[in-house]
Specification:
Layout lengths: L10 H18 L11 H11 L4 H14 L3 H6 L2 H8 L5 H17 L5 H5 L6 H12 L8 H10 L7 H11 L5 H14 L35 E12 L2 E2 L2 E2 L9 E2 L2 E3 L3 H8 L6 E9 L3 E11 L12 H16 L1
Parallel strand pairs: 1-7
Antiparallel strand pairs: 1-2, 1-5, 3-4, 6-7
Helix pairs in contact: 1-11, 2-3, 2-8, 5-6, 8-11, 9-11
The structure holds iron/sulfur cluster.
Length: about 325
């Protein structure tokens, strides 16, 4: 073990691992658009998207978002409704709103070019700040995401990697010659080889020093975190002009338009009272998962003369609700 290092290998092994990983990455990396640029804006958009979306899905949203808003100035100048509309379907709309606010701040005050400066921007946490600082500006700061966590835990046979241990280990491992490429390489190793299930240890550039090899599934110990399930009622109000949509003020869908919602078992009674209705017809149940919670949505529909309005950016949940109601109307 190198003196004073948190890593369990000597300097020669560390050097050999860096060479092996970078050479593996050069041969095996996926050609992704955000890896072809040093533009901090494009990298930031990609990193925010990738926090909640798989790479294959993110590609389409990324292209659409950059075509609509090619730089900080274009994003800052756009109305929030348009930003949410372009983002719709990518989920976790809070991030889109924060990205929008971030662009407005950058236009006013300029873009910080360091990890510490980036951390002060709206919605930017340690992962995103490290990704942008290392890739766009070459700052030697390590990223820690789910892939890196798993790879480090296995390489070091650490069953319960704590955040501080992860930060220090990732930082000690980082190749300072090209931090952006190093970070991408370690994440790519986790995505393609050191996968959660069936890691491909036989083709792994780190196999020669990996302490978890042989029993990789022991590392890291699984985290038990069940998403909270919440009961919500949706009331679809149908009128001659269409369906009533309203702008949501709070919760995970704030800022988007959708059908009226109310949480809890008495949600229907509150919605009926709000719209002066005596009853509504039960349509069915829709399930929807957000990042840290699940909603079970009981959907009701009623005729309401005031319903109507133009096309609005609605969430994926509302699309599910409206499609359920639409299919019921067609079959009844
Ligand atoms: S040898 Fe296996 S467990 Fe170790 S880092 Fe490589 S893929 Fe992961």
């Amino acid at each position: 073990m190198a003196k004073g290092s948190v890593l369990p290998w000597d300097t020669a092994a560390l050097g050999a691992f860096r060479e092996a990983l970078l050479s593996w990455y050069a041969r095996n990396r996926r050609d992704l658009p955000w890896r072809r640029t040093k533009d901090p804006y494009a990298i930031l958009v990609a990193e925010v998207l990738l926090q909640q979306t798989r790479v294959a899905q993110a590609l389409g949203y990324y292209a659409r978002f950059l075509a609509a808003f090619p730089d900080f100035a274009a994003l800052a100048a756009a109305p929030e409704e348009k930003v949410l509309g372009i983002w719709a379907g990518a989920g976790y709309y809070r991030r889109a709103r924060q990205l929008h606010r971030l662009a407005q701040r950058v236009v006013r005050e300029g873009l910080p070019r360091t990890y510490a400066g980036l951390l002060g921007l709206p919605g930017v946490g340690p992962y995103t700040a490290a990704a942008v600082a290392s890739q766009a500006f070459g700052e030697p700061v390590a990223v820690v995401d789910g892939n890196v966590r798993r790879v480090l835990a296995r390489l070091c046979a650490e069953r319960a990697p704590r955040p501080r241990w992860l930060r220090e280990t990732a930082q000690a491992l980082l190749d300072p010659r090209d931090p952006g490429t190093w970070n991408q390489a370690l994440m790519e190793l986790g995505a393609l080889v050191c996968r959660p299930r069936n890691p491909g240890c036989g083709g792994c550039p780190g196999a020669f020093l990996c302490r978890g090899r042989g029993e990789p599934h022991r590392y890291p110990r699984p985290r038990r975190r069940r998403p909270k399930t919440e009961e919500v009622v949706a009331l679809v109000l149908v009128g001659p002009e269409g369906v009533h949509l309203e702008r949501r003020e709070g919760g995970p869908l704030a800022g988007l338009w959708g059908v009226p919602l109310a949480p809890g078992p008495d949600g229907l009674a509150r919605l009926l009272a709000r719209f002066g209705l005596a009853e509504a017809r039960w349509v069915g149940t829709v399930r929807h998962a957000f990042s840290h919670r699940r909603w079970v949505v009981r959907v009701y529909a009623a005729a309401w003369p005031g319903a109507g309005g133009g096309a609005r950016p609605v969430s994926a949940l509302d699309r599910k609700i409206l499609s359920l109601v639409g299919s019921q109307l067609l079959t009844n």
